[in-house]
From TrEMBL:
UniProt feature, compositional bias: Polar residues: 318-330
Gene Ontology BP annotations: positive regulation of ubiquitin-dependent protein catabolic process
Domain CCDC22 coiled-coil: 128-608
Species lineage: Eukaryota, Metazoa, Chordata, Craniata, Vertebrata
Coiled coil listed as a keyword: yes
InterPro entries listed in its UniProt record: CCDC22 (IPR008530), CCDC22_CC (IPR048348), CCDC22_N (IPR048349)
Gene behind this protein: Ccdc22
Protein name: Coiled-coil domain-containing protein 22
Region described as Disordered: spans on this chain: 247-277, 306-339
Biased composition range(s): Low complexity: 260-277
Length: 638
């Protein structure tokens, strides 16, 4: 057990337990040291279980009992199958504590082995620490504010919360782009660009802005990677050429959109000019003074406008007269004034309704006129198209009429032209056939060559994609290995440098040698025991056979001789005494084994410190009674 205790003490020191140099075995562990060791192991194995437990044994007995019960429950939650309770920590004995510490140390090694398989590095360690902290906070139940202990008051008190308001940031570009950036921009980024925290007017906006900027950069990188893998590789262009081609395509699309917008605007201006031309055309149709008379008649809209503006002075005079009459005199009463005001309001409302009706009528007339103008413009366009078609047909008919006086000669000329055209078509067809055959052969050859090159390019493209995937996997593997290397180097730097590896190796070899020697001795003892048992069995059988033969021979002679009869009696008595002696020896061996077992049990009970634990229990009982008495006195005083 000495070696086991050394291993346990070394493991407990590694997790942060303050074990003194004079402590060499578990037997020397005090209750305070046991509680500290168990709590620190729980914090390493399962932070959610150990974060809410104190590693210092409280002075009050009730608090000690609660802490012991909490530790026992936490160990059972981890999977400890042995008997455990508050007495294990407060009134400990060596075997139970050794078994519990061995279980916890074994779980420590298992957790470290599992963590070594996980991705290493600063980011991975930070993520695991954040996850453990969040898990520990979520495992703590919510308690109302009036019932919170100091720990929960610190953990569950809501802090200042801020909304997620992101602001645009000005950050220097990456290293790849910085090689192509101008010198002035580099100088600005190095000397004049303020830091991120100084660019925000409100400090709570800094994390939100950084998160949004990083998310935008990450999404852009992922989008470019997906586009390059899906379309860029197929285009067989370099990334720079692909980007330049894409930029040109966007510029061309923008130019087309601008050109289309400018053209539509010019068409609208042309339509407005055509409407004015239509008005001029209508004026020209009226002609002279008659036209002026017609235009002088005006439309309903012009009449309404003229009526409204001509009637305005009269209305103003009438309103002024009404206002003058409505001035209060000394002889009018308040009722007359109120009646006049109501009449004035009624008249004004009527005028307002009439004006609204007139405005609606004028709006309807404007809409009708607009529709009529559009219809007239459409009819004009249709008539222009019809006139163009008629002019074309008229031109053809005129040419035909010119050819009618000399019809026979013109027909002969036309026939000659048709025959010449036919001969020319036949000669061109024969020439085309001569050129067509080699061109078709060349086309087929080029098509086959293109298809073969297409297959070759497709094969190479698939190989390139496979190489890209292998490169990505190799990069990820290298990143994992590099993180693991950094983690191992960090652990190596934290290890004590004064410990010699050869000493540990020598000690392990000595332990292995001792185990081998013990195994050989045990095997030798077992073989000796088997040989001795075989010898005892053979001697017992030989003795039984010899006694049977001797008994038979002596019994035959005992019938004839008196002295032989006495010898037979002595022989029987000797055999019985020897049997009793053997039985006594066997009983003595059994008793000796029982004595050794009892001595071992006594040593075990002595190791459990039963007497000291009983004395400690009595002291704790007295302390609890004193605490209860003090609490009762306080209650009576209250």
């Amino acid at each position: 057990m000495e070696e086991v205790d050394k291993i346990l003490i070394h493991s407990l020191r590694q997790v942060g337990t303050e074990v003194g140099e004079d402590v060499l075995s578990v037997k020397q562990f005090s209750s305070e040291l046991i509680v500290e060791a168990v709590v620190r192991c729980l914090r390493v194995i399962e932070p959610s279980l150990g974060s809410g437990l104190s590693h210092v044994l409280p002075p009050g007995m009730s608090a000690r009992f609660r802490l012991g019960m909490s530790l026992a429950q936490a160990c059972q939650d981890l999977g400890y199958k042995g008997e455990i309770g508050y007495q294990t920590f407060l009134y400990s004995n060596e075997p139970e504590i050794r078994s519990l510490l061995m279980f916890l140390v074994e779980r420590l090694r298992r957790e470290s082995a599992e963590s070594s398989d996980q991705p290493a590095g600063k980011s991975a360690l930070l993520q695991r620490a954040i996850g453990a902290k969040i898990k520990a906070q979520l495992s703590v139940p919510w308690v109302p504010p009036s019932f919170r202990v100091p720990f929960l008051c610190q953990a569950q008190t809501p802090g200042s919360s801020h909304g997620f308001h992101a602001r645009p940031l000005s950050l220097p570009q990456s290293s790849k782009v910085s090689r192509t950036t101008p010198k002035e921009l580099k100088e600005y980024c190095q000397e004049h660009l303020p830091p991120v925290t100084a660019q925000m007017s409100q400090q709570p906006s800094v994390p939100a802005s950084l998160l949004e900027w990083h998310a935008a950069e990450l999404s852009a990188a992922l989008e470019w990677e997906g586009e390059w893998n899906s379309q860029g590789l197929v285009s067989r262009l370099t990334p720079e050429e692909y980007k330049a081609r894409k930029r040109q395509r966007f510029q061309k699309r923008i130019q087309d959109q601008l050109r289309h917008a400018a053209q539509s605007r010019s068409d609208s201006q042309h339509a407005s000019r055509s409407s004015s031309d239509l008005a001029d055309l209508l004026r020209s149709f009226t002609g002279g003074a008659g036209g002026r008379d017609v235009l002088a008649k005006g439309t309903r809209f012009t009449h309404t406008e003229k009526f409204a503006f001509t009637q305005e002075p009269e209305k103003a005079a009438q309103q002024m007269t009404t206002a003058a009459e409505s001035l209060p005199s000394s002889r009018r009463t308040e009722q007359d004034l109120q009646a006049l005001q109501e009449e004035e309001v009624t008249s004004l409302q009527g005028q307002l309704e009439q004006l609204s009706l007139r405005i609606e009528e004028v709006g309807a007339d404007v809409k009708k006129i607009t529709v009529a103008i559009s219809q007239v413009s459409d009819e004009l366009k249709q008539k222009e198209l019809g006139n163009a078609e008629k002019e074309q047909s008229l031109r053809v008919k005129k040419q035909t009429m010119d050819l009618l006086p000399d019809a026979e000669n013109n027909l002969d000329k036309l026939q000659v032209l048709v025959e010449g055209s036919a001969k020319r078509v036949v000669s061109l067809a024969s020439q085309w056939e001569k050129h067509r055959a080699p061109l078709i052969e060349e086309h087929r050859r080029l098509k086959e060559l293109c298809s073969s090159r297409e297959l070759e390019s497709t094969r190479r493209l698939s190989e390139i994609k496979g190489l890209h995937e292998k490169i990505r996997q190799a990069a990820e593997e290298a990143k994992k290995k590099e993180g693991l290397y950094r983690q191992l180097m960090t652990e190596f730097e934290t290890l004590p440098k004064d410990v010699s590896r050869s000493a540990y190796t020598q000690r392990i070899l000595e332990i292995v040698g001792n185990i081998k020697k013990q195994k050989e001795e045990i095997t030798k003892i077992l073989s000796d025991t088997k040989d001795l048992q075989k010898e005892i069995n053979s001697l017992t059988g030989k003795l039984d056979r010899t006694f049977a033969v001797t008994d038979e021979l002596v019994f035959k002679d005992a019938k004839k001789d008196e002295s032989v009869r006495k010898a037979y009696k002595y022989l029987a008595a000797l055999h019985e005494n020897c049997t009793q002696l053997i039985q006594t020896i066997e009983d003595t061996g059994t008793i000796m084994r029982e004595i050794r077992d009892l001595e071992e049990q006594i040593e075990t009970e002595n190791g459990k410190k039963t007497v000291s634990n009983l004395e400690k229990i009595l002291e704790d009982y007295k302390a609890i009674r004193q605490e209860n008495s003090a609490l009762a006195a306080k209650i009576r005083e209250a």
